[in-house]
Design brief:
It is a single chain. With 95 residues, this protein is of the alpha+beta class. It has one domain (6-85): Glutaredoxin (3-Layer(aba) Sandwich). It is built from 3 helices and 4 strands. A 4-stranded mixed beta sheet has the order 2-1-3-4, with helices on one face. Strand 3 (52-55) and strand 4 (59-61) form a beta hairpin. The two termini are 16 Å apart. The relative contact order is 0.22. It holds the Pfam family 2Fe-2S_thioredx. It comes from Zarconia navalis LEGE 11467. InterPro entries: Thioredoxin-like_sf. This is (2Fe-2S) ferredoxin domain-containing protein.
């Protein structure tokens, strides 16, 4: 599995209305060494946000709330295991 180096948090209109600025702020308040967290434009999944995309492995999380960010950081970014209960089923149906 490639080393995680980037996390994108959609900041486009729909995700913003669904709370993505707070999700991005929570990621930035809990930095992980060698992982860049940044806001991005539309990820093409409007209505399922806030969307979070972990790269380069392309792990998608949908409807992420600020209180769930620490679980993503601890279990996935630091622990190497995606948070199965939070995975976006459209792209991760079998997990």
């Amino acid at each position: 599995m490639p080393k995680i180096d980037r996390v994108l948090v959609c900041q486009n209109r729909t995700c913003r209305r669904q709370g993505s600025p707070a999700v991005l702020a929570t990621f930035k308040a809990n930095p992980v060494a060698d992982v860049t967290v940044e806001g991005c434009g539309c990820l093409g999944q409007c209505g399922s946000g806030p969307m979070v995309l972990v790269l380069p492995e392309e792990t998608w999380y949908d409807r992420v709330q600020p209180g769930e960010v620490v679980a993503v950081i601890e279990q996935h970014l630091l622990g190497g295991q995606p948070v199965k209960a939070m995975l976006y089923r459209k792209f991760h149906p079998s997990r």
